[in-house]
């Protein structure tokens, strides 16, 4: 089955413009199931043919995942990966019927995203020491994460040409190579201007040659998502905030604070780059203060 999986991955890359993160998840999910099928059928995994995996085998795999105490989100993602894979095989004429059509896939658990309060967010952003080179860089990173509400992959993918400080705009490349133009607030613009004019040239001196990346590490190379996760963890730990705070928490906080202050849901959807409004709607359930304000403003006897 290896060859068919390889063809599917190429299809995801070329026709679907899937991100490396998505491709990695698909690969991991498919090979996890393949290992199980090989054990159940008593064959080597490379010798399996897609027609050998029927609906009964997938139901058995589903039960196996539940026995391993996998979360609903993990189970749903793995079964969805296999369903997409067999949809591809049907299109290519390798199999006639998608066996996953006869298997009930559990719905993904919808956990409410964690977010920081406005006071916590301000404390984190202001914590880096701007008198230090990396402190000034970190301040610009945090201001951009929160000021634009972008994903960490979008942040580290920014090049110097993607930033227009005069117009307070940045261009980000999202999932599937989709581009969108986002506004920046005054605080983010000021932090970026200081970083780009005073700090970035000093970091560039540490590595010879041209570098287009906006955010650089202490060796002069492009800052990685791992580096951003590390610095977020460092500052939140110093402040005693939730240990599970990560770069995506800034995105959750951005959306929550926008809606708290009356932003239109459709506008927030566009800013976040969500394909479906339902993905954005989860943020409407987050703030008790917002619910209370709406009640006090709207109910005739509040």
From TrEMBL:
Predominant location: cytoplasm
Location of this chain's protein in the cell: Cytoplasm
Keyword Cell cycle: yes
Pfam families: Phage_int_SAM_1, Phage_integrase
Molecular-function annotations in GO: DNA binding; tyrosine-based site-specific recombinase activity
Domain Core-binding (CB) residues, every copy: 1-90
List of catalytic residues: 151, 175, 248, 251, 274, 283
Domain of life, source organism: Bacteria
SUPFAM superfamilies given in the database record: DNA breaking-rejoining enzymes (SSF56349)
InterPro entries hit by this protein: CB, DNA_brk_join_enz, Integrase-like_cat_sf, Integrase_catalytic, Integrase_recombinase_N, Integrase_SAM-like_N, Recomb_XerC, Tyrosine_recombinase_XerC/XerD
GO cellular component: cytoplasm
Subunit structure: Forms a cyclic heterotetrameric complex composed of two molecules of XerC and two molecules of XerD.
Family the UniProt entry places it in: Belongs to the 'phage' integrase family. XerC subfamily.
Function of the molecule: Site-specific tyrosine recombinase, which acts by catalyzing the cutting and rejoining of the recombining DNA molecules. The XerC-XerD complex is essential to convert dimers of the bacterial chromosome into monomers to permit their segregation at cell division. It also contributes to the segregational stability of plasmids.
Protein name: Tyrosine recombinase XerC
Organism, as annotated: Desulfoscipio geothermicus DSM 3669
Gene behind this protein: xerC
């Amino acid at each position: 089955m290896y060859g068919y999986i390889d063809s599917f991955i190429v299809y995801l890359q070329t026709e679907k413009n899937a991100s490396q993160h998505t491709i990695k998840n698909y690969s991991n999910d498919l090979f996890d199931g393949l290992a199980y099928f090989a054990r159940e059928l008593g064959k080597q995994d490379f010798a399996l043919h897609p027609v050998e995996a029927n609906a009964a085998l997938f139901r058995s795999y589903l039960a196996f995942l539940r026995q391993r105490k996998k979360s609903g989100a993990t189970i749903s993602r793995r079964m969805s990966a296999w369903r997409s894979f067999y949809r591809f095989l049907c299109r290519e004429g390798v199999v006639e019927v998608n066996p996953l059509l006869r298997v009930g896939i559990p719905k993904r658990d919808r956990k409410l995203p964690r977010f920081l309060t406005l006071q916590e967010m301000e404390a984190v952003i202001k914590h880096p020491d701007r008198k230090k080179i990396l402190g000034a860089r970190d301040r610009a990173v945090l201001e951009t994460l929160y000021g634009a509400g972008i994903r960490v992959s979008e942040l580290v993918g920014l090049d110097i040409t993607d930033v227009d400080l005069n117009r307070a705009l940045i261009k980000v490349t999202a999932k599937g190579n989709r581009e969108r133009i986002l506004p920046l607030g005054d605080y983010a613009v000021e932090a970026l201007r200081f970083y780009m004019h005073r700090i970035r040239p000093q970091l560039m001196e540490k590595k010879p040659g041209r570098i287009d990346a906006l955010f650089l590490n202490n060796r002069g190379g492009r800052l990685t998502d791992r580096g951003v996760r590390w610095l977020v963890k460092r500052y939140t730990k110093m402040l005693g905030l939730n240990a599970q705070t990560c770069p995506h928490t800034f995105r959750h906080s951005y959306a929550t604070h926008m809606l708290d202050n009356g932003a239109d849901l459709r506008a927030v959807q566009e800013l976040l780059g969500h394909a479906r409004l339902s993905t954005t709607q989860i943020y409407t359930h987050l703030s008790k203060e917002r619910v209370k304000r709406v009640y006090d403003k709207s109910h005739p006897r509040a």
